[in-house]
Amino acid sequence: QSAGCAIIRPPRDGGIRYRGLTQEQVPGTVQILPVDYEIEYICRGNRVIVGPKVRKCLPNGTWTDMLLRLSLIALFLLWPRPSAGKKKLYIGALFPMSGGWPGGQACMPSAQMALDLVNNRSDILPDYELELIHYDSMCDPGEATKLLYDLLYTEPLKIVLMPGCSGVSTLVAEAARMWNLIVLSYGSSSPALSNRQRFPTFFRTHPSATLHNPTRVQLFQKWKWTRIATIQQTTEVFTSTLDDLEERVKEAGIEISVRQSFLTDPAVAVKNLKRQDARIIVGLFYETEARKVFCEVFKEKLYGKKYVWFLIGWYADNWFKIKDPAINCTVENMTEAVEGHVTTEIVMLNPETVRGVSNMTSQEFIAALMSRLGGMNPEETGGFQEAPLAFDAVWALALALNKTVAPLKGRGRRLEDFNYNNHDITSEIYRALNTSSFEGVSGQVVFDAQGSRMAMTLIEQLQGGSYKKIGYYDSSQKNLSWFGNDVWIGAGPPADRTVVIEEYRFLSQKLFAAVSVFAGLGILLGILCLTFNIYNGNVRYIQNSQPYLNNMTAVGCMMALAAVFPLGIDGHHVHRSQFPVVCQFRLWLLGLGFSLAYGSMFTKIWWVHTLFTKKEEKKEKKKTVKPWKHGKLLLAIDFLSLVIWQIVDPLHITVEKFTKEAPKEDLDVLIQPLLEHCSSEKMNTWLGVVYGYKGLLLLLGIFLAYETKSVSTEKINDHRAVGMAIYNVAVLCLITAPVTMILSSQQDASFAFASLAIVFSAYITLVVLFVPKMRRLITRGEWQSEQQDTLKTGSSTNNNDEEKSRQLERENRELQKIIQEKEERVSALRNQLAERQALRNRHRPSIGQNQNHNAPPPSSQTDPKSLLPPPGYPTTDNHSLPPSFSNSSSLYPADSKMSRNHCHNSQIPLLYK
């Protein structure tokens, strides 16, 4: 009776027994049944054996057919072996059948299938049988606390604990060391569980969630993203994962611009992402919370061609289609919102067809799991992706326990001797798990020093409502296997932020050209006026207008007009490196031009005012006039101030940024307008000093021009024209300076105001000062030089006559004022005399009046000379007075003339006091 043959014999008690089957009889089964065995089916009651034919147990204790075929052997392989004589080792498991991650729906059948296969193996724990005691933790740490208490304090003893969710595993693993229990998790990804000091006996076949982060960083770099945002559910697993991600992206030079978190309601967090222009968003939350997040994402329109979401890949494939009463979005809304998102997931199913320690390929495992699920839809089954990890977790535990049998036996210990106070057996199991290495259905199972599984990462993208594999990443080898089948809504991967295009604002070239033409013509006019003034410098009329100051005015106007060109030059014409030179040209040309032009006019009008406000004797003593020396002083002051400004705080280029503008053709692009300015560190201080100094000169110039408007002098014959020019320059400057400061951000308006003010000021100044001189010399022919003028003194005589005529007119006006004052005094005295005479007449007796009526008038005896006016007072003889005094006789009109008979000699002088 060898194992190589099949012997079928009737059992002595009416049963059926089989011993040994060859490979030819049952293909592929001899390798999992390597030792002799005996199968006995005892006919009792109403037992039925199902196969190609149905065998029923007869009342007499026999079967309907004593010959069973190979189909009965296949049925036997699915039934567990009888455990008679084997000692049981119990595993306490917590499977989340509901909650945030209902992974127990597929993981529990997978673990049970692994236990069946392990228990059927005679080369693994031949003297032991593993049994699973499990509860539904609902992925809730609070519920898990109660269940853990039941597992620990109720019989039988559990040799190992197997939790699922990270939150539950954290609780169990932290407490397990107090009972010397090994914890082996199949679905925990929290990075916090990698802390060996906090969780000294923890292992997991599910890799740490931090294994996603190297893959995410690799994708960020592949798609050239340097700015990301994150949103997380406030649980430890996601917080620790995000902390690890921050460290990794910082090393890679990537910025986390927005970090949002929420507990139960993600509405505010999603709105903040929208408000802060988040584009590349990493979401860390459980599946139930993911539906809430993407319902808000749909409401805020935080999806489409401008956005990319990175999610965890262990959700169910149709997680966004599951009806959830916690959200008010339809399936169509959710499908639209999640389209195109990218998931990173640990490779949980070996992509290669390799038979592992369980003698199953990954494809055979999926087929067997589907059979156990009884036709359930994998997409609607929680934990279907993690099922291979639960399967390999049971195999890892079984192999580790099998490895501890021999070392424990050498020390006289057995696995069944385990209790919660026995540290030696726990240490052996820990050592065996730590050195585990086998090929499972999820790939190579190896644990690192922290007890976490090491694996590759799968990258998927939701395309058309279903997930498509787009690549793998091996973080240990830093190798990215890319399939190139990623699909984007737009032309390619979106930008990590709104693309901002910097656009410099330049001056309108049409405006610059038009003003430049006027400035050029003004320069030509200045050259013409300067040439005219120099050529006719020996003409007396030109000499009497202080030609040196006029030359300074013409040169200053030309320099100011030349400043228009650098004012209009910007980055459109020169490189940024050359722009500071243009700034210096603006400052020097405009500063010195103003100093020459306005300073010379101010000097002339100031000298005129000074000359004609001095006393007469001082004016007679003044023989020579050199007012141009004062113009040099003002020029020196301005030159020195510009040199100090240049040395202490030189001008440089600064860039002003404006509000971003969105073009109509592309909403994902913003234009950042920029404008170049000439500025310095203390620009406002310098401008305050310059504007204050120049402003005082302008105001003072207006005052002096007003004070000297009626002054006439031969030595400066054009001071009235200078006053008019000062009025125009002062008004334009006082208006333009503040306006250009206000409009500094509007390059066209600022240039137009400044340049046109310069052009108009220069034109007005040149025309007012030089055109009348040109007209006079042309119309009167006064082109003779000073030598010729001495031979032909007609013009000089005419000039002297005109000067004398103006002198007489001025004296005439002064005398008329004196006469008017005297007439008012005479009128007042007449009134007084009339009142006194009336008073005498009332007191004089009527008789006396009659007696004196015939008396001769007293005036008949007076000396006629006493009636003559005092010396120096104008007489009534019109022939002896100038024509302007012909009306002096009006002092004594006929109708109001006082009779000389009624005036006493002593009263006559009162009239002329």
Automatic annotation (TrEMBL):
It is found in: Postsynaptic cell membrane. The keyword Manganese does not apply. Residues 783-799, 847-864, 904-913 have a biased composition (Polar residues). Pfam families: 7tm_3 (PF00003), ANF_receptor (PF01094). InterPro entries: ANF_lig-bd_rcpt, GPCR3_GABA-B, GPCR_3_C, GPCR_3_GABA_rcpt_B1, Peripla_BP_I, Sushi/SCR/CCP_sf, Sushi_SCR_CCP_dom. One of its GO terms (cellular component) is postsynaptic membrane. It is a multi-pass membrane protein. Residues 880-891 have a biased composition (Low complexity). Residues 801-810 have a biased composition (Basic and acidic residues). Residues 783-810, 840-913 are annotated as: Disordered. Residues 518-793 form the G-protein coupled receptors family 3 profile domain. This is Gamma-aminobutyric acid type B receptor subunit 1. It comes from Takifugu rubripes.
